[in-house]
Amino acid sequence: MANEAVIGSFYGEKAVWLRSGKYEAALLPEIGANLVAFRDVEAGYKFLREPEEAEMDSFREAPAVYGIPVLFPPNRYRDGKFEAAGISYNLPVNEKATGNHLHGFFYKAAWDIVDQGANDQESYVVVRYVVDENDSVYSVLPHRFQIEIRYALSANGLAQTSTVTNNGDKQLPCLLGYHTAINAPFAPESSKADVTAHVTTGVRWELDERMLPTGGTIPMTAAEEAMKSPQGGSPYAESLDNHYSAAPVDGRNFAEVIDHRIGVKLVYDAGVNYKQWMIWNNGASAGFFCPEPQINLVDAPNVDLPDETKGFVLLQPGQSWNETSRLYTEKLA
To answer: What is the dihedral of CA 312, 101, 212, 174, to 10 degrees?
Structure first.
């Protein structure tokens, strides 16, 4: 298949379809710039949890549990309030059960397509969301800034380059993560018993009854230790909604899923600039789990830890943060 980037449809929603060799991917610019599909069409693998046609209404209402949703700021913030660099923020409380703000403003928003195309090496699309005084987000995040994501599809898999740029004159809290929903298994004839997962986690952060970090750590369970080990463990051994530091191995910060029935490994090389992980598996009840890379600790501005430890980044005026992540497969020997 030739490399191409074309505007099309995904169950009635505007989509940018990327195609390269055996791979295809679909991005929905008007629903949070969600990269909702990444597939090996030759083998019939669907690597991400995709909404089926009958689930599209549910997806539009809760897109954060499909594909690769953009979280800014990621996860929870106590009462929606924090202070950074002398500015007080008051985000809406949108999770009534905990009284927190959850997941930010961009995963449902319409993004602009600023470039798309294909060449001999890849197909690609670039999307951008710009916040300034004319945007509704400015009322709660009073900064001029932009988030830009470039997705590229090639023989090497799917690459995601994320860039946050401070266009204003004040320091910007750079709080970014992705709620990446990976099918495990990704092969249609495999079962949950066929897969193991390995994530380069460090310590497990203690969370209080509101799912917010206390600043302390707690021991991992045996199931968590198994997933931390190079041998991996089942991502469904127990219910997971847990928070961890990232602990890169040989300079790489990654999650991987092995389908032992077919002898194929899916690698999610998130990048070392993501300093934290969340892992969520929807109560271990379904065939997907979410290894979620984040720059920062949940509720980072409110947690009494060093900025380096909690991954809290303040961008100076004119400064950018960026990282490239990649999803790809390997055949086991």
So the answer is: -10
